[in-house]
Amino acid sequence: MSGIEHKKDVPQHLRVAVLTISDSRAAAMHEGRDEDVSGKLIERRLQEAGHSSIRLILPDETEEIRAAIERFSSDPETDVIITTGGTGITRRDVTIETIAPLLEKELPGFGELLRRIGYEKVGGPAILTRATAGVIRRKPVFCLPGAPNAVEVAMDLILPELGHIVKHARE
Predict the structure, then answer these.
(1) CB neighbours (10 Å) of residue 36?
(2) Whole-number pLDDT of residue 25
(3) What are the structural domains, with CATH classification, of the chain?
(4) DSSP for residue 1
(5) Could you tell me the pTM of the whole model?
(6) Which of 32, 102, 105, 110 is the most buried (most CB within 10 A)?
(7) pLDDT at 3
(8) In which band, very low, low, confident or very high, does the pLDDT at 77 lie, cut at 50, 70 and 90?
């Protein structure tokens, strides 16, 4: 089967939940300022690719992150979840600890490739991200770093394959 045949019948228009996980972005939003550069970048790239999105900004709090993941992974209107932020190694970076146990299938190649490309662009600091991806309730979930440059690289990886990934996650 050719690559074209393999990608036949993939969904073209997807609904994506974009979750920005950041204490500082959540505090700014609470004060009426939307400083979510990475979340907006993800939304823009999704829109350019013909997808729609809903964006939430959450603090680095396990229970709030878990509740949002549960909400969107159970929502029949949501096809994909993309998070940004909380993938580093500081005490408050809890995205991976919160989401990884919920993953039913992991896509380790995503984080590996993101770190590889990041290393080529910025060197050693690329190892500080624990970015990952997987599937929860037949929905792809991508956990991206919070840095806009890393988000741009991640979206370059995700977007060309997103419909294909969703198709297989649903099977």
Answers:
(1) 24
(2) 94
(3) 10-166 (3.40.980.10)
(4) -
(5) 0.95
(6) 110
(7) 56
(8) very high
